[in-house]
Protein 1
Amino acid sequence: MRRPMVAGNWKMYGTRTSVAELIGGLNQQALPAGVDVAVFPVSVHLQQVLDGLAENNIAVGSQNCAFQSEQGALTGEVSPVQLADLGCQFVLVGHSERRSVFGESDRDVCNKFAAVQASGLIPVLCVGETLEQRNAGETLSVVSAQLDAVVGELGVGVFAKAVIAYEPVWAIGTGLTATPQQAQEVHAEIRAQIASKDSVLAESVRILYGGSVKAANAADLFGMPDIDGGLVGGASLNADEFGAICRAAGS
Ligand code: PGA
């Protein structure tokens, strides 16, 4: 039985004041005991969020990190070792905004994935197709290639300590959500791809759905057999909404 997970990607939002309010709101949520909950603030707010949620059962992760685990002369970067030292547990790798806006290639994503694990943290590998690719019937091949960029280089075993997030690019921040059936089709394919190399591991790896998840659609999405929770952007900036999504994952 896979333990559901709900992750909140705060993207580049928040000030110390609004983050304090969000922490306060999160601390008031009744969160289901059977769900892993994590939030991913802007890096300059990580310490504030770690301190603010210390009494709570909410893990904290980073939205990005350097491609190597060791410290070094990489101006402007943050090493995953430094994130681990701070108390983070997760790092998002390969979010579509990193891929499209910052030009991160599959190789960059794979390097970050490896660096995160080398630092003892858990990567959340994001994969997903654009609208153009979906319309061209390329969804499964695009997602499969993104996954294979990591499996081919590092081996399937790395997914014993990783989470996958399927996020169709056309559904991110657009209000357009994949239907539960559309998402399930891709999730099942991702799991089958892992099962082709390790069937036991495939049953335990968590695959989250992301793309305009909100309280109103979460239960239907999380009810699908291969959807193990969500990676939530916009709706995670509202503590009540995020709390409701977490409860949907627990029911
Ligand atoms: P969204 O973002 O929930 O606002 O669509 C999801 C994400 O980017 O992870």
Protein 2
Amino acid sequence: MKKTIRDYELENKKVIIRVDFNVPISDGKITDDNRIIQSLDTIKYAKEQGAKIILMSHLGRIKSEEDKEKNSLKIVASYLSKILNDDVLFSESTRGDELEDLINNLNPGEIVLMENTRYEDLDGNKESSNDPELGEYWASLGDIFINDAFGTSHRSHASNVGIASHLPSGIGFLIEKELNALSVLDNPERPFVVILGGSKVSDKIGVIKNLVNVADYILIGGGMAYTFLKASGLSIGKSLLDSENISFCEEMLNKYRDKLILPIDSVNAKEISENASTNECFISDIKEDDIGLDIGHSTIKLFKQYLNDSKTVIWNGPVGYSEIEQFSNGTKELCEALKNIDAIKIIGGGDTAAAVINFGFKDAFNHISTGGGASLEYLEGKSLPGIEIISDK
Ligand code: ADP
Ligand code: MG
């Protein structure tokens, strides 16, 4: 068990909290504040306990001087200040006098947000390659380190692993919540059904290999289903084909024929476009010039039968090209079905989370993971370095 923020006496301590403020910004406006909202519990708790709070986060990627301007955390500081109804100081530098003075002058309960940790990437990729000097320097600014950035916990960066190597450390409430939810995998109530979709098989090989051992059934939809169908000898027209992984799919189907449930019909179109007209057919009838873009009605019915009996469901990857209305029906229908099913239901995967929230089914799930890549690696059974490094209880 990892230590959490609750395991430390925070009063008067300089507490560095690594948050995930990697929010989408367009025309100088934050277009989705979910990540900021999700960090509030930890920040508020630290404040109540009288910590001197130092917030760090990355935002986007910094490869050139121009990237710095569009990826400044300054507007996040004002946004946070507004929703906390409290002052949030901002350090424009990621090291040096300005930053150190702001930190050293903090009173208990006061908050400073440091500029984007990835500004350090311009000079030798220091943040993203976990430069040892940088991690040690940032650690020297605080007394305790709390990691609450689940979304980057699968990466070993100076602002998580680097700092944690030098300070007593713990996880924040958001990571704690993520780990609690995802740990259903350790001992799932059964039947345990996984819905897997998305685009390429290659993105999900690790997930399939890991979950096939734990799950009772894996319902396969989305673009990746077509490579499985191809591997079982069917013609898939112009549907997404991951030709390098046909033999992997074949091997999986041979080994786990009863566990892997493939679509039996498909919604197709000649082009991936908002104006495309669609046709629906049995999986054996996909025309040469058609692209399979969603599961059909019979597949929805089939998948629902598995879901109806389930006690645990993990869903990664939309079952169709759900960004476009005509191909979103399968994903929506599964959401609708899951809403009424009494099981533990978890969403892992950035696009799946976006789709489910966008379609208005947020409340149908017990947990929607905030970390796209991190939740995927968790589902692959990998350990997450940003959490691994945290002090044990
Ligand atoms: P997540 O981010 O939840 O892990 P992925 O990134 O694996 O999900 O997959 C999401 C993408 O898969 C979406 O952009 C979606 O359009 C695409 N997709 C789903 N079904 C198909 C399909 N039949 N053909 C092509 N792309 C698809
Ligand atoms: Mg994705």
